[in-house]
Amino acid sequence: MVCCTAQEQSPPVIKLNSVVLREAVWTIPVGTSSFTLTCEGYSTVTWSTTAFKLMRKTRLGSVITTRRLTVDYTGTYKCMYENQPDLLSEVHIYVKDPHNILVTPRTLGDVKEGSDVLLCQLTNPIATDLSVRMANGDPTPPDMNYTVNPKRGILIRYLLTSHSADYVCSAKINGVTKVSKVVPIFVNGYVRIVGEQLLIPCITSNPNHFYNGHVVYYVLGVPAATLPTFATPKLFTPTFIGATSTATLLFLLLVIVLYKYKQKPKYEVRWKIIEANDGNNYTFIDPTQLPYNKKWEFPRDKLRLGQILGAGAFGKVVEATAYGLGTGDNMTTRVAVKMLKPSAHSEEREALMSELKILSHLGSHDNIVNLLGACTQGGPMLMITEYCSYGDLLNFLHGKAKLFLYSIPRGPGTPEVPRVPENHDHYKNTCAQESRVRSDSGISCSSSDNFLDTHPVSYTLSLSLFLFLIGSLCEDPETGTWSLDIEDLLRFSSQVAQGMDFLASKNCIHRDVAARNVLLTDGRVAKICDFGLARDIENDSNYVVKGNARLPVKWMAPESIFECVYTVKSDVWSYGILLWEIFSLGKSPYPNVVVDTRFYKMIKDGCYMSQPDFAPPEIYTIMKMCWNLEPTERPAFSTIGQLIQRLLPDQPDHDKTPQQGAGEQGDPDKTNGDCEQTLNQEGEEEPLMKNNNYQFC
């Protein structure tokens, strides 16, 4: 630790995570989860730092802390007394990152002529040959003055308006040259005013090496002309008022435009990769910091784009043919390509690149839409994924609903499978053993005056009777239509559970598990995806714009709605809603229920939807296990997959009923026995008061 000493008082003491720093230079790996710099002294102290992350903060206090250390915390940290700034201690910290040996400021803001700018800093002390040049490859302007220090970085002194350009830094590590991000510098010139200090540098050469002499300079000053202004009050007053009114209106218009721009939806990658967790406090990996492997690069000229499969505000997905994607150069592969629209902003470009990095980080699995390649150079960014010929599961279920219903035989003495006419509102009641009524929403709860009219309970078939009635339905060779049966629904459920189990094993949280985000490919294989920028949310009444996030309330776990906490267990809750979608043949969850105080009251009280018309009792038991209010009691996706596998016909016929144990709510009659509907109490939380399925955290 380098100290500037005083005669009486001692300089401040710097501590890192409560340990006194004895050295002047420290190297800390990027991603360190615990980083706390403390400054202690005999009086009030303050920090001064060159770290780009903290440089713009006017007052740092005596403690600097962060949950996750990033490269932009690299810099020199000086701690000084507020009443004696020349008595200080300092330490230089390198935040070592193998992928970024140079760190640059995210933005320089307003650069004034004559000011100094710290352009870049090294994150690794062993890097050498630190230099700066213009981004187009040209050397720096000849009149630019800058200093290069391995520890302090590159500092450009006294910038001029002629220095406005794009710059990059470079350095070598292990013999390999690394280049920083482009740093644009725009220098604003200012008109001098009377009384302001004027500093004019004078640079000379001394070829004869004579050091004795004197400097003579002359300053020619021309005072600014002062011109009188003559105007009558009658002319001046209306003009001034008109100009002021116009300026005010323009200012208000500018504020409205900026507000609308801030409220405009921003594309966000829903999938999150967990780096570490402490209870419900999760630390997520910044996807922009994930590495990108160049092996995914695919020649742009070997891709033939076709029709649009889906489009949103910022991007679209198109069908395409890839030549040579497999083992042979002449081999053709049908793929889907996600790309940005010309209207996309830099945030959307960064988000699409983050999505690409996440998919490459996860790896391949049969039940997720896998990454096949990408084009990131020489044109617009293209992300190439598997093509799923049957589209999304929600629309597939809607299209096959009639085939599913009408394919069930109706023999003498055979119970009729319940059809689903329009405005069908009959749901099975499961809340308690006492006398019950049920609302049109299909929510299982106790009797209450606040409920709507009651309806008779629909007949629900057992799994064995379902399979007996439907049997094995095959494709009709005449119509080419493949009917939908209960085995298909079970397989979809099992495959999605396997895909979610894979994501959980990779510490990945989906945050939007729903039938709309499951695609079906050849062989009716279900694959999990994230439509992201390819969904037309601006024209979808299910989405509400609030901030920069869009959250599907009716699919979300209670802890996600009320506390904005997302875990693998919150994905399990959403999976239970997905099961309800599948076995209701694509109905929207909580039908006829408005997302308001009453809805949140139901969720808090542990009320849940009744058994869907086509769900076997065993599947409904799994749904209730997923909807346990205690997240730790919900089953793991591996357990869910095993339970559903037992229900499939080709599995051993033993123990096909999910067991009541860890991860299940137990007897629903006991669990929800006190689920009374007191929906108009004051003081309830109202995260959203809109008639839609989405809110924002």
Automatic annotation (TrEMBL):
It is an enzyme of class 2 (transferase). The chain crosses the membrane at residues 240-261. The active site is at residue 512. It is found in: Cell membrane. GO terms for cellular component: CSF1-CSF1R complex; plasma membrane; receptor complex. It is a single-pass type I membrane protein. The keyword Disulfide bond applies. GO terms for molecular function: ATP binding; cytokine binding; growth factor binding; macrophage colony-stimulating factor receptor activity. Residues 303-648 form the Protein kinase domain. It catalyses: L-tyrosyl-[protein] + ATP = O-phospho-L-tyrosyl-[protein] + ADP + H(+). InterPro entries: CSF-1_receptor, Ig-like_dom_sf, Ig-like_fold, Ig_sub, Kinase-like_dom_sf, Prot_kinase_dom, Protein_kinase_ATP_BS, RTK. ATP binds at residues 309-317, 338. Its EC number is 2.7.10.1. It holds the Pfam family PK_Tyr_Ser-Thr. Residues 649-697 are annotated as: Disordered. GO terms for biological process: ameboidal-type cell migration; cell surface receptor protein tyrosine kinase signaling pathway; osteoclast differentiation; positive regulation of cell migration; regulation of MAPK cascade. The keyword Glycoprotein applies. It comes from the Eukaryota. Keywords: ATP-binding, Cell membrane, Disulfide bond, Glycoprotein, Immunoglobulin domain, Kinase, Membrane, Nucleotide-binding, Phosphoprotein, Receptor, Repeat, Transferase, Transmembrane, Transmembrane helix, Tyrosine-protein kinase, Ubl conjugation. PANTHER family: MACROPHAGE COLONY-STIMULATING FACTOR 1 RECEPTOR (PTHR24416:SF47), TYROSINE-PROTEIN KINASE RECEPTOR (PTHR24416). This is receptor protein-tyrosine kinase. It comes from Oncorhynchus mykiss.
